[in-house]
Amino acid sequence: MAGFAFFGLQGLWQESMDTLALTLSAVLVALLFAIPLGVWAGLSDRFNRIITPFLDFMQTMPTFVYLAPLTLIFLIGPASAVIATVIYAAPPAIRITAHGIRSVPETTVEAADSMGSTRWQSLVKVLLPMAKRTVVMGVNQTIMAALAMVTIAALIDAPGLGKTVMQALQSLDVGTAFNAGLAIVVMAIVLDRVTTASSTRAEQARNSGGRFLKWRRPLLGSGAVGVVVLIYLSHTYLWAAQFPGDGTTGTHIANAADSVTTWAQDNLSGITNAFRDAITNGLLNPFQSLLTDSPWWLVGAALVGIGVVVGGWRSGITTAVCVGLLVGTGVWSDAMTTLASTVVATVLVMVLGIAFGVWMGRSAMVDRLLRPTLDAAQVMPPFVYLVPFLALFGATRFTAIVAAVVYAVPVAIKITADGVRAVPETTVEAATAAGCNTWQIITKVQLPMARSALTLATNQGLIYVLSMVVVGGLVGAGALGYDVVAGFSQGELYGKGLAAGLAIVLLGVMFDRITQAAARRTRA
What we know:
Layout: H1 2-9, H2 13-43, H3 45-60, H4 67-74, H5 78-103, H6 106-114, H7 119-130, H8 132-152, H9 161-170, H10 174-208, H11 216-236, H12 238-241, H13 248-267, H14 269-293, H15 296-311, H16 313-329, H17 332-362, H18 364-379, H19 382-393, H20 397-421, H21 425-433, H22 438-449, H23 451-467, H24 469-472, H25 479-489, H26 494-523
């Protein structure tokens, strides 16, 4: 209730409801086929093996890539946005539902079979009820993915908060962008909390034995009747359809954000500009020049060599195919510029990920303190990360890199922490008994034994960073991100935008195949 009232007080009620309508419509359609497919994958090993590569590919592609081909068929507008969101949001529900079904103890299923249950009865009466909490978690992840995609879909004229943020970013209106971005964060938190709580609501009610349990269904029925009456009133009377007030809270938030931005630019510009220039001139520019100024065949050969050394000959073949197709897109120079930014951002992600991940993995207290913040950071859509860094660093490619780092680092930290924590305590105790100090234990024992987790963290960090490429095109990132944004906004550049989109897909596939193969080789 507080969250929805806040939308109205911000003056963004209509935009918020547009975003909510697109999100829930896409989620409902996605779940109609995602949950049955997840159940099928949980019951059938053969189907699970078949569908897993498709899910990997769907989750590898950056968010925007779903938009380009659909606009050719369904044109630019909300319809394409919903369809793209359905496709993007379905994989988490399929994966997590299959995991929930497979996690049900075999002994329980065998007990049901021994009592004469049919396959349908075992599914409906045993597997699904016992996997309910996991399935609801899949629904939660689907909603979060759909909300992130709906905001990105503003690039193809989808209505809602994403469109407000995009227009504000293009005009460098930090205050308006912050106000709309805050609304997106609030909506993400509301949807996340509601779906997370629903997974345990019924079970807690049964266990509590409260007196209101027997009134639960009548109360729900009464609430449903009240909702129907309110919907009728809102379609009949103007006063019932409009949010009261003029949204002055949003104006105050925007003005405050503009004031903070002005103060930061006046007082912190020396520090922020020095930091930006150090990273840009000391790391990004030399690496970018190396990739863009070198002959394409030399860079391509180096990439193929890296693929073979890190991931094996299959990764090398995949890299060679991707390099050939990148050359064919005609945007090789922009692709190398994007590659440079992505690699630099990923290096920064892994430096932070290892530092904080080791700290979390070694200290339960630090884990309890940091994990809620990391969870909240993963809920926020990519658009939101651009706003504060636009205020600090201006519209430059460094802004996009820093936003990508902040967007990707939570998942890298959590994976690294889990890998360090998984190292057997007996091994650490043996190293301590042998006289190793803390630094030696970390570098000689825990990190080497967590290599597979570090490789997976690198994989996820790369994919998250790459997914920010197009969004970064709104604030001066240039290269492929700018080509995509320009292609959607300018009809004469639509072909180049599609080529840039294909190039982003190829970079994503190349990165994913190499790092996943490296992870498999590390585990082996």
